[in-house]
Structures are given as C-alpha cells and as structure tokens.
UniProtKB/TrEMBL annotation, chains A, B:
Protein keywords: DNA-binding, Transcription, Transcription regulation
Organism field: Streptomyces parvulus
MF GO annotations: DNA binding; DNA-binding transcription factor activity
Record-linked InterPro entries: ArsR-like_HTH (IPR011991), HTH_ArsR_DNA-bd_dom (IPR001845), HTH_MetalResp_TranReg (IPR051081), WH-like_DNA-bd_sf (IPR036388), WH_DNA-bd_sf (IPR036390)
Any single Pfam family the record assigns to this protein: HTH_20
Keyword Electron transport: no
Residue ranges of every copy of the HTH arsR-type domain listed in the record: 15-110
Keyword Transcription regulation among record annotations: yes
Protein name: Transcriptional regulator
Amino acid sequence: MPPAATASGARELPHPTRAEIRLEGVLHALSDPVRLRIVRDLAADSDALFSCSHFDLPVTKSTTTHHFRVLRESGVVRQTYRGTAKMNGLRRGDLDAVFPGLLDALLAAAARQAAVLGGD
Amino acid sequence: MPPAATASGARELPHPTRAEIRLEGVLHALSDPVRLRIVRDLAADSDALFSCSHFDLPVTKSTTTHHFRVLRESGVVRQTYRGTAKMNGLRRGDLDAVFPGLLDALLAAAARQAAVLGGD
DNA sequence: GCCGTACTACGAGAGCTATCGTACGAGCTG
DNA sequence: CAGCTCGTACGATAGCTCTCGTAGTACGGC
C-alpha cells in the first residue's frame, strides 16, 4: 500500500543531488566488475538510454536490480521509468561538474584494462 | 620460524607487478576514506617515503596495518622495510604507466571534495 | 645481552555486500 | 479482462571488510 506514488503514472526514484555525490561512493560503485561493465556500456552511447534488460549480465535479475540501485544511489546513473521499462542513463554532466575529468580517466583506464585482458 | 626471510636484513614484501594491477582493486582500495586520505598524504610529497606511524589516523595500529596492506596488495603503494620502520611510497610511475591520468584525476577529485566539505 | 619501538599475526565481532530464489506489482498487448 | 514482460521486495546465505585487542616478532640502542 504505497500512499501516493502510483497515481502519477511515472514512479519517481530518489537520486542524490550533485552536492550529495561522494567520491568514495562513486569509486565503490565502480569497483565491482559488473557495475563497471554497465557503466562502460552506458558510456559507449552517452546520450542514449538503455533499459535494465538491455544488458547481458552474468547475474540474475534480482542482482541486476541491486547493482543498478547502487549505481543510482552513488550518483553515477539516472533512472527513469518508461512504461514497464526502467531507462538508465549515465550522469555524465553531473559527474563532470563535481569531479572534472574523473569519469573520462576512469573510462580510459577501464578500456585499457579490457584491451589488455582481451575483454571485448 | 620463517625459513629464509630474515637473513637479508631487509624483509621483502609481496607486491603486484604492473601487469597484475587491476582497476577494480585500485578503486576498491581508494573507496575507503582512511585509505584515500593516506594516498592523498603520500601524493602531497610524492618522492618522499613515510613510515606507517607518520600518519595520524583515527584508527588503531592494527587497523592501520590492515589498510596499508590493502593499498600494497592493490598496487597503490610500495612498502619497504627500513630497520624497524616500514616506509611507504606511492607507486605513481607504475600507476601512470598502467592507467595514464587516472591517479591525477582521482587526486584532483579528492582534493575538490575535501575543499567542498571543509576538510583540510 | 636486554629493553623499547615498530609493525605483524591471530582471533573475534559487527556490519556490509553480492548473490540467489520466490513472490509480487505495474504496465502493455491481445 | 487475461496474460505476458519488466522490474521490485523480501528473505536467506555465504563471504568479505572494518574494526579492535592481545600477543608476538624484528630491529636498533644502551
């Protein structure tokens, strides 16, 4: 019995503001291989939004939900409902504003490691 | 009764090679506030070596040992014995070689957050 | 040779995390 | 409306992590 979130037709999800984004939280979010891969996929098409099910992850749906929540609560991604699907977008603008250059450096590092390890 | 580590006069500690350094490990190491602070202090004087006891951390010696081990095993710092003291140095060259620009971006982000939050 | 200092090892507890399975709600599609 | 798909909530479990205290080891100085 949720009091007042069903009427709008678009359930709202809590996101941290720019000021609430913590470096430790971002690093922790990205220190998990599954989440790092999600972020890399999102960054490949930065303007696009992808549903959770678009990603082919080696975990179950429950675990996927968990990882997306960690990413959202750390301020890395923004999630919005679109019908039954939940669309995910990288918060590149916010991250660049709070930590200029960090996201690019992280993505470059991840790409470099993926290349060395033979990952995609 | 350690078989053969006492004779050299300088006990050796295991460190990951450049190729063994993993981005996830580095991010995980830096996602702890205590360790992030250690790295910031080390980076402030990048050429210098500091003993573990040089840092004024809000945890006990046991916990300090633990944190330095995490930093060493993730490849962020290099530890060498010098008498009874264990000297710690940032592995800036190795990190820059494996993930160019990452360390600077991380340090800049940490400095920015510390400034905003009023930390030193 | 003995003591103090610096760090480690071990044990231990509280809390978080990643993972899963099952059951459920929200919204299309027929 | 019925059913399907997408995602959530909850419970459970195993493993890790951060923290500590105590006991122990290595080294330098007296």
